[in-house]
Structure formats: structure tokens, C-alpha cells
Amino acid sequence: MAVLVVGCRARVVIQLKLLMWAALVVYYVELYTDINMVAQHWGLDHSVAVILLVARCVQALAVTAAVISESSKQPPSEEEEVLKQALLGADVEAPAAKQKRPWYQLMFTAIMYVWPRTPLMQLRAGICVLAIAVMRLLNLAVPILYRDVVNTLADASSAAHPRAGDKPEFTTFWHIFYPYALLYMVAAFFQGGAGTGATGLLNNLRSYLWIPIAQNAFRSISVDVFSKTLDLDLRWHLMRKTGEVTRIMDRGTSAIQNVLSTGPATSASNALLEGYWDMNKYDNARGARVTDALLNYETVKCFNNEELEKQKLEEAIINYQKVEYKLMASLNGLNMLQSIIIFSGLIAGLVVCTKGVAEGRLTVGDAVLFITLMQQLYAPLNYFGSYYRTIQQQLIDMENCFDLLGTSPSLTDKPGAKDLVASKCSVEFDNVSFSYHADRPVVKGISFYCPGGQTLALVGSGKSSALRLLFRFYDPTSGVIRVDGQDISEVTQASLRANMAVVPQDTVLFNDTILHNIQYGRPSATDEEVYEAAEAASIHESITTRFPQGYDTIVGERGLRLSGGEKQRVAFARAILKNPRILLLDEATSSLDSLTERRIQDALAAKRSGRTTIIVAHRLSTIMDADVIIVMKEGDIVERGTHQQLVQMGGLYAEMWTRQAEAAVVEELGTADEIGTADDKSNGDVSEMAAAHGSSNSLVQ
Question: Does 328 score more than 80 pLDDT?
């Protein structure tokens, strides 16, 4: 039978030796019948029972280790790669080869999250382990007691109904009920399971005590994984897809939760039978394709590519379903083969038991004991094939999750780093160079100094990278950046960023209320302070008049319910509310009209006392009042000075200024022409407008 089992299993799933263990279990049960007969003959029932109990526990642990080890060491097949492509997309970079963790290391890491930290929780965990140990003992004791009850009843029945000529012997109820029937009832009540109509007192107690342990462990790992993703640097996030990271987080925590929900695993039957068939995790196959489409909804609509996105989604699902069909068909075939082999063993065992009872070597209770033990052993074996795939997938998910937890950010605080001591908040770049790629530098040895409380503007290529370096999203390749004379690489990132606020060009808001998005700049701020910041950013009136729910209006995903100008004004209000010592503006007014821009600049100027402001701008009209303007070209500083000085120099800045001024004249002429045509008086008005702009342009030049 063992040869047949191994042969059939090898034809279904290569390298899976699971049914070889099932065959050994069948052989063990059949052997148990013979051993039981010998033990009864020599009066060694109790000694043999203890030996068999130890053998069963060792065997269960061996089966568990074999299944998990085989699941974890099997390399990803071609079907696994198709699944990855369906889930992550065909354009995903192949990850760098990494050494796979042994399964026992994964389990040990998971146990570190499971094991509670407080004495009360540790006591709960200890009781759970003790309850499971007692349940394992009852798994063997209940069938044996059941056998004794059957034998007692059979003997009593035979004595009460003897053969013809023999005198009947009647026994009392208590003689029959005690001790075996009473012990069986008590043991079955605590064990539960088949025939009791309940799950058992011990199992319910263990489940109840395990609830807070599982919840604490799940909360711990979920928060740790989320915290780790926030701690990792910007370079790490830019190199990975958001959907891929969230899938690792969701699947990893889900895999650990599935382990925790069943309590501590003590045998192959518990580890497999009580696990969840987690097919819902494959719903992420379609999510991988639709995430980008939903995040870029406007782009899809603008280019009329709805059908293309539907086609891409359908192709991903078809590729996944092809693999799913092969896997499910293989598992179904495996289960049918297992059923045939299992019932063959059961029939063979019943033949042996029937022959033993007929010959007087076995009692009816022995036959009942054999059938009961077979049911206990075969029930979990029926799930081995089905749950092999689940175990393998959950080990992979746990490994990816633990790899994420073990990832170290490339940019961290140095040991012993101190908090930034901010006074005037002067900013200095000292021969700073930086490149995203070694062969493409974006900042080339730039040096400048901005005294505290002044405004410095950056124009040209490489300006936004300079802001990222100041915010310490990256460390420079060479050179030093100082704030108040302190090297920012020597201070903590939290203290550095606590003194800064940034208004980006592309403002992304949380899918929450307007109040929450503004208050995000300083969560402890009162509603009145939020309203004051909104007024300074010229957004308060729009919020109260345009939106029925006012500040409680949900802005939508990435703030899509707001216009571009409204989103930028919310970002301004958030920065104003924080009241930073250093304010960074990265093309912050690109979506604002001239009047709103002027109002915000006036509000910032009124609050600028003692604040250092660094502006990255393409529209030169927004930086005319800057104390110093740095002009960059291909990462180098080519000019510096005030607006008037740079215009008079006639260099790159003057050329950019003239080009933008001419573009503004043409734009306003076009607007005036449309207005004039609508009012049927275009000629005179356009001539006057052209003359006016002609004189202003000459003044500029």
C-alpha cells in the first residue's frame, strides 16, 4: 500500500511525500490492532497505550514537519510565475535573487509576534497550551473508554441473555455505568467532536482565552509593518509599486492571522484542518490591474481608453484562471486518489477486525476502537492535499512580510544624532552634489547661503532636487547642507522636518474632510486656528459658500473633488497652520490665478517675520520680491542676485523673463480679442490693449 500511495502521489504533485506519511499512518493503525491483541494477552494494556500515545505524537509532529518543509522548499513553478505576472503585471522587474528562509525560521518569527508580553496574557497562553495537551490526551483516551463501554455493555447483554440452558446473570445499573461509561461521558464532554453535538469544553475554553492573544499579535504585526513602510526612505518607495507593497502587507498579516486564529499548532491535523481556505486573497489579481486605472481615472477618460483597461483586466484574469484550473484539477484528482486509498485501508482493517472477532481474538469493543481511531486519523488526512497549496502560499506571504519588516532604510539617523537647535534657521549648501543614478548627476557642486528670515528662490533644472536634499529625503553624494550651522545629516530627521513645511506643486490630499487636511499641518490646532489659516490662504470663503457641508466636505481620492487651485490653497493653509521656521514652496502657485496668488503672497509676507523661505519657481513673476535668486542650469549655478540685478545682467534669467513677459502679453491679447468679438467692439479695444502691453513690455526690457 505504501508503494501504491507514493507512486500515485508522485504522479500528481512532484516531490510531495505527503501520502507516504499517510500510508505509514494506515500501517500504524493496522499494526495497532495486532499490538492491542498482544497487549491484552499479556496484560499490558496501559503500558502499550502510553507507548502508542507517544508514538502518535511523534508521528504527528513528523507529518507536520514533512508537510511544512516540503511546502517551503519547493521552488516556484512556472505556474507560480504566471500567478505573479497576473497579480503584479507583466512589466514588473524580476526581484533580486534572495536566499529563502527555512520554514522553522518563519514559524519562529511568527511565534515571536504571537507570544504575549504581559504576565496575564502569558498565563492565558500557558492555559491554552495546557488545554491543547489535554485535548491530545483525550483524543486517545476517549476511543479507548468507548471501547470499554461497548465491551461492558456487550458482556452485560450476553450475561442477561445467555444461550439455552444457561442461567441468566443480571448486573446493576451502577456496575455498568461506573467507571467506563461515566469516564467516557466526562471525557467526551471535555473533548467534544463527533457524536457529542458540540465542540467540547476545552476547545471552547482555549478559543475564548486565545481571542485577545490573537488580536494583540495581529495588531502588533499590522502596526509594525505599516510603521516600517513609513520609516523607509523615499528612494525605496519610488522603486516599488504601491499596489505591490499593500499586497505584501495585506497578505502577510492575513497569513499570520490565519495561523493565530487556530491557536498554537500541535499536530498536523490541527495545523491543516483548522486553517482557512484563503481563496479571497486571490481577488487581488484583478486589483493589481485596476489600481492604476482607478488612480489615474481622469487620464483613462481623457484618452478614451476604457476598453483598453477592460481588455487588460480580462487578460490578467484569464491568465490567472488558467493556472487556477490546473491547480484545482490536480488537487481534486489527488483527493480522489486519497479517498480510494483511505477506504481501501479501512476495508482491509475491517476485514482483519471481523476475522479477529469471529475467531475470538478481538472483542466488539476492539473493532469499535479501530473504526474510531481510523476516523480520527483519516479526517485530517483528507485535507492534506487541499491545504498543501494554502500552506505553501501562506509561507510565501509570511516570508515577504518578514522581509519587509527586515528591510533597513538607506537613510537613517546617525547613532547619537541630536535634535536640531533652531534659532534664525539660516540655510547653507556647501559644494553639494547629488545624483539619482551614478552616471546622471542632477546637482553639481552647488554652494549658496540664505540668512535666516530671508527669501531665496531657485530657478532652472535641479531646483526641486535641491529641496528634497534640504528636506533630507536623500543625502547628497558629496558636500554638506547646514541649517543654523548644523550639518543636517548629524541631527535627527524628525527635529529637522519639525521646523519645515512644504507646499508642493502637485498637492495630494487625504480622502477625508477639508478640516482634516488643513489640520494635518498641526493636529493639535483648534478649529478657529484652522479657519484663520484658511483665510490667509484665500480658501475660507470658497469652503463656506461653495461646499454645502463646509469644512466637513470629503475631498475625495487625492482631492479630486477640488480644483487644482483649491487643492493648492488647502496645501498653503496647511503650511501656514504649521507655522514653520523654514517654508519650502515648490511651484506652489502654478494653479492659482494672479489675484489669488497676490493675496497669498501678501499673507505670507505678513507672517514672514523671522521665517526663512525657499521658493522653487518656473513663473518668475512669483519670485520678484525674493532677496536672492539662484539660477541653475543642468545642475550648476550660473547666476545669482536680485530680480533687478539679474534682468540687468542680460543673461539666462533675463532671457527667461523676457520670454515669459512676451507670452503673458500674447495670452492677454488673445483674451481681449475674445471679449472684444463678443461685445462687437474688438478693433478699438484690441488696439488699446496692444498699445498698453507694448509699453509695459518695453519697460520690462
Answer: no
pLDDT digits (tens, 9 = 90+) for 438-495: 778 889 999 999 999 899 999 988 888 888 899 898 899 999 999 999 999 999 998 9
* Distance between CA atoms of residues 637 and 56, nearest Å: 78
Distance CA(591)–CA(573), nearest Å, equals 15
Q: Are 248 and 404 a contacting pair, CB within 8 Å?
A: yes
The partner residues of 478 in beta bridges, in order of sequence, read 433
Q: Which three cell numbers stand for residue 262?
A: 487556530
3-state secondary structure of 450: strand
Buried b (16+ CB within 10 A) or exposed e, 165-199: eeeeeeeeeeeeeeebbebbeebbebbbbeeeeee
**DSSP state, 522?**
S
Mean of pLDDT values over 176-191: 79
Listed in sequence order, the residues at least 6 apart from 287 whose beta carbon sits closer than 8 Å to its beta carbon are: 243, 247
Main-chain phi, psi angles of 434, to 5 degrees: -160, 145
* Angle 672-675-677 from CA coordinates, rounded to 5°: 105
Work out the pLDDT band at 35, boundaries 50, 70, 90.
Answer: very low
The whole-angstrom separation of Cα 61 and Cα 370 is 22
Q: Return the exposure string of 120-148: e unless at least 16 CB atoms fall within 10 Å of the residue's CB, then b.
A: ebeebbeebeebbeebbebbbbbbbbbbb
Q: Which amino acid, one-letter code, is at 632?
A: M
At residue 450's C-alpha, the angle toward residues 619 and 445, to 5°, is: 85
Fold classification of 427-642 is Rossmann fold (3.40.50)
**Cell representation of residue 220:** 502588533
3-state helix, strand and coil shares in percent for the chain, rounded to the nearest 5: 65, 10, 25
Count of CB atoms situated within 10 Å of the CB of 228: 17
Alpha-carbon distance of 480 to 431, in angstroms, equals 7
CA distances from 448 to 220, 451, 628, 632, 638 (A): 46, 10, 10, 12, 12
CB 189 within 8 A of CB 200: yes
Q: What is the CATH number of domain 2-93+103-405?
A: 1.20.1560.10
What is the pLDDT at residue 668? 61
Quick one: which H or E segment has residue 671? helix 652-678
What is the distance between the alpha carbons of residues 577 and 532, in angstroms, rounded to a whole number? 8
Instruction: Report helix, strand or coil for 199.
Output: coil
pLDDT class for 277, splitting at 50, 70, 90?
very low
245 and 225 in contact (C-beta within 8 Å)? no
Domain ranges for the chain? 2-93+103-405, 427-642, 650-701
Grid coordinates representing 640 are 545669482
Q: What does the pLDDT read at residue 93?
A: 41
Measured distance CA(435)–CA(433) in Å, rounded: 7
320 neighbors 312 (Cβ within 8 angstroms): no
Per DSSP, the three-state class of 607 is coil
- Concatenating the DSSP letter of every residue in 33-84 gives HHHHHHHHHHT-HHHHHHHHHHHHHHHHHHHHHHHHHHHHHSPP-HHHHHHH
Indicate the pTM of the whole model: 0.62
Question: How far is the C-alpha of 163 from the C-alpha of 498, rounded, in Å?
Answer: 97
